[in-house]
Structure formats: structure tokens, C-alpha cells
Fold this sequence. Notes:
The chain has helices at 16-23, 53-64, 78-94, 125-132, 137-156, 192-214, 217-229, 233-245, 260-272; strands at residues 31-36, 39-45, 102-106, 109-113, 169-171, 177-179. By secondary structure, it is α+β, with helices and mostly antiparallel strands.
Amino acid sequence: MTDAPSPSGQALAPDYAAFLHEHLPGQLSNVASYTLGDEQVWLKKAGARHGMGRYRVLGALANLARLDVLRPVPNLGGEEAIATEARRLRDLKARGLRVPLVLAQQADGLLLRHLGRPGEPTPSLADEMQAAVARGPAAVQALWLQGLLALDHVHATGTSLSQAFARNLVRCPDGIVGYIDFEDDPAASLPLAQCQARDVLCYVHSTALYLRESGALDAARPLWTAWLAQHSPAVRRVLATSIERMAWLRHLPASRRLGRDLQRARAAHDVLTPA
């Protein structure tokens, strides 16, 4: 789709709302990329509403472990998720954070600007760390620390992310970390300190195994200690309590025989606790 020139010979600004209205009904996937004029955009449509059953189960498990910080944040999907994402993206953008710009919105869909250059991917930190494992500990450690500093940047603005897994932190062409995926809002269910601690735990859980596989885990511990010392006392208290209540993870084997998820949990425990 191209834009017609104006009488002065200059291209008119794209009609983002019309593009969203036209393309949303025929889009089969929940998220798809398009070229609009000289830019790349993403169209995100409302998916099916989610049931509450899985949240009740996860909530019961969090209660049993006495870990409010891991209490699930309901994401009901559908139009509510679209409204939540649009609101959160606008708020984060206003705070100066690198998130996709909302170009157009309707009840059942969003049109977002690509964070990178048109046609160029913005790789997630998860993908970059996985690829860096073969290059050795220094490469993985540098990426991991960049993610921690990116969380710092968010928290310094007085807010938190939604699901701060490494797959939702992306590196833009200029090297700055951007943030994606905001269909839920932890701040609607949890105090800010718990939301920020939740960000940290999600991030470490999603990255610690890359540290172990590259041989960078031991060197990451003092980086974690130094980073934690700079965080707010409220967040440090929540993290200290959470880590203490997860001490049983040290009994898990580091091998693959119990599955990848438990490997991640064990590796995260090893990062968060002294040797």
C-alpha cells in the first residue's frame, strides 16, 4: 500500500486508522507485519477471551508457597487485552521508554510501529543470549547485564513491565533495549514493589540457563549482588523474602532429566543466592 502524493508533490501521511479498519477483519493470525508507505507496522487483533481456571490454579500454588509476588495477573484476552496494551504502551512511551508507538486503535485491534528499521528484525535478548552461548561467557554476560540495566531504566520511571521475560526485551538497531507485550497490568493486582520484584524474577528465570550453559553463572553472581544493592529497599525486601521461600530449588538436579523448566528454575536459584 502506497500513499497518494499531495498537490504539492509530497506524500500524504498514512491513514493509520483506515488501514487498521481495512486489514483487521481479514487477518488470520493475532499478530502480523505489514509495509505501509516507507514504514513497517504490526497489526495486533483481539484473540479469544481466556478462562479464569488457570489463574485460580496458579493463584493457589502461589498461596501455598506464600509468594504473593508470583500471584498470577489475570489476562482475560479479547478486547480487554487490547485496551490494556494500548493504555500501557502510551503510558510507557510518555515515561520515555522504548516501546512500540500506537498508530491506531479500535476495540478489537491495534496498529503499532515496528521498533527497528523497516524489514529488519529486532532480536529479543533471549534469542541473542542463546546465540551468544557458543561465543563464551563474556558475550552472554554482557547481554544479561544489559537486560538488568534495562529493568533499572523502567523501574526508575516509577513503573514496571508486564511479563519481563527476556523474549519481551528486544534490542533496537541503535543498541537500546525496547519492551513489548503488555496485555496484562500487574499494577492492577499488586503493589509497585512486588511488580518490580516480579520483573526481576521473570527476567532471571528466563536468562539464568544461558549463563550456566556459557559458563558465565559464577561471574554473574557479583554483578547481581551489585545491581541489587542499587535497587530500592522495598524491592530488595520483596526479593529477599521470595528468594528465601524458593530455597527448596537448590535440591533440584541441574541435569535435564526433570525437564527444561526445572533446569531454568534451578539455574535462577543459583544466580540469586550466594555460592
